[in-house]
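Notebook entry, structure prediction.
Reason for the run: the old model in the group folder had no record of what sequence produced it. Starting over properly, with the input documented here first.
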Amino acid sequence: MTTKPMKTFLTSDDGNVMVDWMVLAGALIGLGLAFMAVMSNGVEDMSGALAGELESMPADTEPFRANGAAIAANDPVRN
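New structure, fully documented this time:
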């Protein structure tokens, strides 16, 4: 019985590059999912707060005025 086929199989490096790329791709996907899991709660809280602020504003509010006063001294719309 010869051991040459087993020795050739154990010393061959033909598929190793592909395995390395698959491990790297899996790690990047895992990091992306972990990042999304951490960030999603903060984004949901911020969007909820923004939605609450927008819903509480009256519809007739002028968005480019601060406390009813013109932001620019020479407001072309009112002058």
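Summary: The chain has a mean pLDDT of 77.
The old model has been moved to the deprecated folder.
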